[in-house]
Design a protein that fits this description.
Blueprint lengths: L1 H24 L14 E11 L10 E11 L25 E3 L3 E2 L11 E6 L3 E4 L8 E2 L7 E10 L5 E8 L9 E8 L4 E2 L9 E9 L2 E6 L7 E4 L6 E4 L22 E3 L5 E6 L7 E7 L4 E8 L8 E2 L5 E7 L8 E7 L4 E3 L9 E9 L5 E9 L7 E8 L4 E5 L9 E2 L5 E6 L7 E6 L4 E7 L1 E7 L3
Parallel strand pairs: 3-27, 4-31
Antiparallel strand pairs: 1-2, 5-6, 5-32, 6-7, 8-9, 9-10, 10-11, 12-13, 13-14, 14-15, 16-17, 17-18, 18-19, 20-21, 21-22, 22-23, 24-25, 25-26, 26-27, 28-29, 29-30, 30-31
Amino acid sequence: MRNNGQLILTLGFLLLASGCKMMLTSVRLPDPASSPVPNVDTIDTVIAMGTESAAGTSDVLAAIRVSTQTPSLEPTITPTEPPAPRSPTPTLAPAYQQKCLPVQDLPPDGLRQNGVIVLGGLQARLYNLKTLGKPVIPLAISGSYFEFLSNNSAVSPDGKKFIYLEGSPDPKGYIPMRLALRIVRADGRRVAVSQPWDPRWNAIVSWFDPETLLMAWDISYKGRMTVVNPFTGQARDLEPTFPDVYQSHLPGTTWDNATNAVYSPDQTQVVYLRDDRVDPEHQIVLWDVKSRAAVWQRPDRGALAHTPRWSPDGTAFAVALDGGTGKESQDELFLVNREGDERQLTHLATTGDKAVFRGLTWSPDGQSLAFWLDYRHAVNAYETEELGVLDLAGGQITLFCFGTGSARPVWALDSLALAFEIDPVNLPIQTILLDLQRGNAYKLADNTYPAAWLKTP
């Protein structure tokens, strides 16, 4: 009885020990439903447990098979998108190119250009390019006369006639008491003029056709003009239908010393300077004469110096607009068509901190613009004034190393050359001819400035 009880007790201890051993060696696996494990290899492990048998008993052997799962060590590769190619940084076109040309003497074989240049100065005269200025034909009939050529003159559309204002000074030295319109041909011959100068007029604006002129009244008349035939004296007034024309009696506060309104060649539209006394900046407005409505308008801080220029075919006008916000002017050139669609032609303000356009002039073929440019290409850089030419087709500005000109550049009739004035240091004022096609510059005459380019008679 005692042996049986001892055997039972020993067996109980063995079972208890094996249970604890199984608990210690068991591996708890995650629930596959909640944590899926990819590609798992199963490893079977056999653990053998034994104990010495007591007297009268058999050896107790228990073989327990325990299954465990070990995750695979194979790497999982997640596909990634290939890197996007880097976009090239856009290269901005330069705002301008520069050409510095030496001034040469006239070539012995003559100039390539044709025509007669009207030169102003101490004595106005005609300069025949083919005869190299010989003979020079004076415009004045005597020394008691002088000519207003820079702002009171115009070339007829056919290029054969030149009209200007001639005055006879008062013997006591006062302002001219007698003014008259004069017309001269390229050969120096005068053309009879029947129309006397009207004291209400302020300036010769332009020719409309070979027979009629546009004359601007004084600015106090708020944009009123007269279309007149100088050969017959027949005239009609253009009554302004546009409101709030800017007016001032201070010198230099009108466009080209005439009036703050510029008509299209067919007189159906007009660009004018509006001051409604509300906006702090003046407005440049494109006005349709028939509908009496504004087609386009833009504020312009430098509007008093920015005379709009209609293209030769009358389809658009070019104008400089000052978009600067600081003390310096930052002009850009714009082209505006008759429907009011505008296109910016230059981008100088993006590189420099000053740009001021003066003397804007169309080439006869309507493909280029010439001007004087006061420019500083970067902050704290040296300010320069240079002659510039803009090619409208390519959008390229070329600055030539000629500066300090006051009169507007004058285009050759074939649009391949320019005549302009320069004021060299310690030298007299000179008239220079620039051959744009060949890249040559020649001095034509001292103490003169160009006023017009006429056809050879």
